[in-house]
Amino acid sequence: MNSLDRCLEEFHKDAQRVRTLDELNRLKGRYVGRKGVLNDYLKQMKALSPEKRRETGQKINQLKKIMEEEISQLQKVVGQSTKKYGKVDLTLPGNAIPSGSFHPITLILNRIIEIFFSLGFRVEEGPEIETEYYNFEALNFPSEHPARDEQDSFFLPHNYLLRTHTSPVQIRTMEKYPPPLKVVVPGRCYRRDPMDATHSMVFHQVEGLVVAEGISMGHLKGTIELFSRRLFGANRKVRFRPSFFPFTEPSAEVDISCGVCAGEGCRSCGYSGWLEIMGAGLVHPNVFKSAGYNPEAIRGFAFGMGVERIAMLKYGIPDIRLFFENDLYFLSQFRGL
Ligand code: PHE
Fold first, then answer.
1. Are 313 and 256 in contact (CB under 8 A)?
2. Which of 103, 150, 299, 312 has the largest count of CB atoms under 10 Å?
3. Nearest ligand 1 atom, CA 279
């Protein structure tokens, strides 16, 4: 009798430790299974007197009922928690909440503006839907200039178009403020270019305009070289090439040594080792005239840089189309930058 009571006590203790279905099945086997403790007791009953046998038999059946009841209760609890949570391993790291990130173009735009801001530039903005006047005429584009062709620009009704560069904001800014000026203009631009690894119909530029007495090409070169060193590091090379823009004289194109191939020549730099990142020059007197400034009294320099090109150089991105495909696998690489 005593040992049966102890057996029940032990069962309760063991039952309290059960956490999983496996453990529950083992408990069941150990106590009420065919080879379990209770069956052992039943077998031992043969040795008892008929009277004792009856009493013990009843007691054993009672224990069996209690145990089976408790096991079926446990089954509900344990079964439920394993169904809901599987096997819970509390040592595993938690599930991270996915976080967003800035688009690489936004990252670079912010960085460019930060650098010019530290040099004393202010930020101006202008409309993406422009008039032909601001986009071309006021910038000294002759009316037969190929950029005015329907092949090159997105034209809208009533002489509006999607701006092909941020330069119209030069005029808008000079109309708004008297000299001296030191502004950068970030913004989206549009051209009817066929898409390839380095061209996109939609792209971003940052325009720069500095107007003051006695401005020269030296100021332009110094500013661009300082900017390039800050953005890319001192080991990237900068080169100025003579060029032509209707709204600057003299004009230059600025190249940076390719970061994908380190100047060797690859698909992203058209196998030249260099990537053109901006047009620049001294502000043409006719531009000052259109904006109502006196070209005799002041000088200025201007530049317009392609943000996608710069992001490609900075991050070693081989194809401009990656910026516009919204591929999360690509974009998530910039998380935390
Ligand atoms: N607007 C020119 C372009 O889009 C770049 C430029 C800006 C050139 C300012 C000179 C001065 O190509």
1. yes
2. 312
3. 8
Q: Show Cβ contacts of residue 265 under 8 Å, excluding neighbours closer than 6 positions.
A: 258, 271, 272, 273
Residue 42, both tokens: 């039943």
- Which H or E element spans position 39? helix 37-44
Give every CB contact of residue 310 below 8 A, 6+ residues apart in sequence. Answer: 108, 112, 231, 277
**CA triplet 238, 317, 261: central angle to 5 degrees?**
55
User: What is the tens place of the pLDDT at every residue in 23-45?
Assistant: 899 999 999 988 999 998 888 88
Q: What is the CA radius of gyration of the chain?
A: 40
Output the CA torsion 198→201→204→207 (10° steps).
100
280 lines ligand 1 (CB under 6 A): yes
Q: Which of 167, 221, 243 to mutate to test ligand 1, by most ligand atoms within 8 A of the CB atom?
A: 167
CA 49 – CA 212 distance, rounded (Å): 121
Interior/surface letters 14-33, b for 16+ CB within 10 angstroms, e for the rest: ebeebeebeebeebbeebbe
